[in-house]
Write a structure and sequence with these properties.
With about 675 residues, the protein is mostly helical. Helices cover about 65% and strands about 5% of the residues. It has helices spanning about 5-25, 35, 40-45, 65-70, 75-80, 85-115, 120-125, 145-160, 185-195, 210-230, 235-245, 250-270, 270-275, 290-300, 330-360, 360-370, 380-385, 390-410, 415-445, 450-455, 460-470, 470-490, 495-505, 520-540, 545-565, 580-600, 605-630, 630-635, 640-650, 660-665; strands spanning about 170-175, 200-205, 280-285, 310. The protein has a 4-stranded antiparallel sheet with strand order 2-3-1-4. The longest helix is centred in the N-terminal third of the chain and has 34 residues, at about 85-115. It is a multi-pass membrane protein.
């Protein structure tokens, strides 16, 4: 890619970012857009209009004060309002800001001038290529974190002081044997835990109710339709006409009759006799002490390891109830199916990545397909095609990947949404690592040399290093598009604001907030890939570093704003995302060091190449130390912390209402449904 292509990509992305951010700051000030831009505040009980200016006082002019407010928000405020998982995401952005601030200074002031002033290849200078600023231009023979500990400390403090939650006193028990005397699972649970644990309180058995959840969703949908049709009668004449010709051909009376049938079916499934027939060998068990709950969750309770299998209970709002009834043997089949599906998606994704790299290698396309030279007849079009179009297409496909992986992870049988999203997070990262990073390199500049690499295996590190440096311009445009355009569209919420506009001018104004959970599975892997690209290319292409710094600064401001106003924090795993993030950063540093070994060899500097090997060894040893020293704290809850928390509660006279705690673990289908047309109470028969 030449300099014109990079400038075109930067100009387009910067223009889109300014337009999107200006629109966002303007639209956010309008009270009618509160369901899109302030749903979290609306759901918390406010009207979403807090902080809005009266008309004529800046409401019709864009401003960027929200960016300053995002940077003024302290970590303690993030932890208190949104939990430790949100703080982990904030720390990920801060790591990128701090790391690439230092790297940018060194890269722009030292490495880029060194690369540019080197007596490199004449063809690069003639083509005005951006490779002038990369290590590719350096001739052969030229002479030219302890974050894991901090998050671990935060996790322990969070468990000890910040979390007085039901899941600290409750465990999940699976594989419960049938009571030989009474023939029920609940009886066995009660006898076993009352015999072996003095602080045992009670239990809540789990039922497999089948399609009752679908019936409740249907009842809720019908209830919303009835409510909307009643509100439409109050609309103006044009909205009445629009509704008359576009709504379903069914009267409110028929909808109400259908609602009665659904409610009756739900009551039948909720009756006590039906529940007894649908018991499954799974239960939530409550203790009066965190210490005994931790002991029971960590220990093997019976000689048979497949009976009375205990784990920490997920939060009530985090639990996936339908997956609790899945037996162990079926889980292995589901995991195999998810692996096969992810593999097939990875193979399918090679098609768009290869096509994108074909656009990047436009000079080769013109040689193979002469009619493509017509693009050069339009001034500036060639720069747009090679500079902006490839990254736009790739980011468009990447946007769909997290949702696809989350859907696949849903079939694996995870018992909590947090487990599902952590699984999806890992799947997305490795997918991006293989398809976006490695495949872009292979399909871009290494394909021409694969034959020689197979015949001369010892040259693979140097050829890989050469391929990495040759693809630096593509990754610069990728970061530009993903950061400038991606973050700007994220804060603008273009799809939701468009839908809100259409609803307001067709069905009437709706004040129902568009409230969704924070998308950890999408944010964490994509930002981690940006860190990986930055670390690998820090020495190879130093001009990428200031762009990455802008990427993390903008991303930090955007997602602080989204946490405060838009997304709901639906669960808090007390920092369980951090081990995955640490592993991603470890892979980034490892790839960078391997690339440097090959790169120094490529530049005929064997001493520097061998000198990098000890750094790689120390990096691996440090990662192993972190696994031994810090990782177990994220997989277990220390008994010491549980004991201290119990003693602290006892000293302060604070106790957890365990009756309320265990009742929180009643599945949604055992609770009354509060609908506009009346609540649905279970039948006690």
């Amino acid at each position: 890619m030449d300099a014109e292509g990079l400038v075109a990509s930067a100009a387009i992305n910067l223009g889109l970012a300014l337009v999107a951010l200006s629109l966002f700051s303007l639209l956010k000030k309008q009270p009618g857009n509160a369901p899109v831009y302030r749903p979290r505040r609306m759901a918390a009980g406010g009207d979403g209009g807090a902080g809005l200016l009266p008309l004529g006082h800046g409401r019709l002019t864009p401003s960027f004060r929200w960016i300053g407010a995002a940077f003024r928000l302290s970590e303690e405020d993030v932890l208190r309002r949104h939990g430790l998982d949100a703080l982990v995401v904030v720390r990920l952005f801060k790591f990128g800001i701090k790391c690439f601030t230092v790297c940018s200074v060194v890269g722009v002031l030292v490495l880029a001038p060194t690369n540019y002033t080197s007596e490199g290849r004449a063809d690069i200078r003639r083509s005005n290529s951006m490779e002038l600023f990369t290590v590719t231009n350096v001739t052969r023979g030229s002479d030219r974190l302890w974050e894991y500990k901090e998050i671990t400390r935060r996790r322990i403090d969070h468990l000890k002081y910040h979390c007085k939650r039901p899941d600290q006193y409750i465990i999940l028990v699976r594989g419960i044997p049938m009571c030989p005397d009474h023939g029920t699972y609940g009886c066995y649970v009660d006898h076993f835990f009352s015999k072996h644990y003095q602080t045992y309180q009670s239990y809540q058995i789990v039922h497999d109710i089948g399609n009752i959840e679908a019936l409740q969703k249907l009842a809720s949908s019908i209830d919303k339709q009835i409510k909307r049709k009643r509100e439409t009668r109050k609309c103006n004449i044009w909205q009445r006409i629009w509704f008359k010709f576009t709504s379903e051909a069914i009267t409110i009376h028929r909808q109400e009759e259908k609602m009665k049938d659904v409610q009756h079916a739900i009551r039948l499934l909720q009756c006590e006799n039906m529940l007894k027939q649908k018991e499954v060998p799974v239960a939530f068990v409550a203790f009066k002490s965190r210490l005994d709950a931790a002991h029971a969750a960590e220990m093997q309770l019976l000689v048979n390891p497949l009976s009375l299998v205990t784990t920490y209970a997920p939060e009530p709002n985090d639990t996936i109830w339908k997956n609790l009834a899945i037996p162990f043997w079926r889980m292995a089949m589901y995991k195999l199916g998810v692996f096969v599906a992810a593999f097939l998606l990875t193979v399918f994704f090679t098609i768009p990545v290869t096509a994108v790299q074909g656009i990047v290698q436009f000079e080769k396309i013109k040689r193979w397909f002469p009619p493509a030279r017509a693009v050069q007849l339009i001034p500036g079009l060639n720069s747009v095609v090679t500079g902006y179009l490839p990254s736009l297409i790739l980011n468009g496909f990447i946007y769909l990947v997290p949702f696809a992986m989350l859907g696949m992870a849903s079939f694996e049988g995870c018992i909590a949404n947090s487990q599902k999203e952590i699984k999806a997070c890992n799947m997305v990262f490795y997918f991006l690592l293989g398809n976006v990073f490695f495949l872009s390199i292979l399909s871009g500049s290494l394909l021409d040399q694969l034959g020689e690499s197979f015949t001369h295996p010892k040259d693979i590190p140097s050829r890989l290093a050469s391929a990495v440096s040759a693809q630096s311009d593509f990754f610069i445009t990728y970061i530009l598009t993903n950061g400038m355009s991606g973050f700007s569209l994220e804060v603008l919420q273009f799809g939701l604001i468009t839908w809100q506009f259409l609803k307001a001018h067709s069905l009437g104004h709706s004040k129902e907030p568009y409230l969704y959970g924070f998308p950890y599975y999408r944010v964490v892997p994509i930002v981690s890939l940006a860190i990986l690209i930055g670390v690998v290319y820090a020495v190879v292409a130093p001009l990428l570093l200031p762009i990455l710094l802008i990427y993390f600064l903008l991303g930090y401001a955007v997602y602080i704003n989204q946490m405060e106003d838009v997304y709901e924090i639906t669960y808090d795993t007390c920092g369980q995302y951090w081990p995955s993030i640490h592993h991603y950063i470890f892979l980034s540093v490892t790839l960078m060091q391997i690339t440097m070994i090959g790169l120094f060899g490529l530049k005929s500097k064997p001493g520097a190449s061998f000198g990098t090997i000890p750094l790689l060894v120390f990096n691996i040893l440090f990662n192993e130390y972190c696994k031994v020293r810090f990782l177990p704290t994220f997989h277990h809850r220390p008994v010491q912390v549980a004991k201290q928390s119990d003693e602290l509660d006892e000293a302060e006279g604070m106790t957890c209402d365990l009756d309320d705690a265990i009742s929180a673990y009643k599945p949604p289908w055992m609770r009354p449904m509060n609908l506009e047309s009346g609540s649905v109470q279970p039948l006690n028969v």
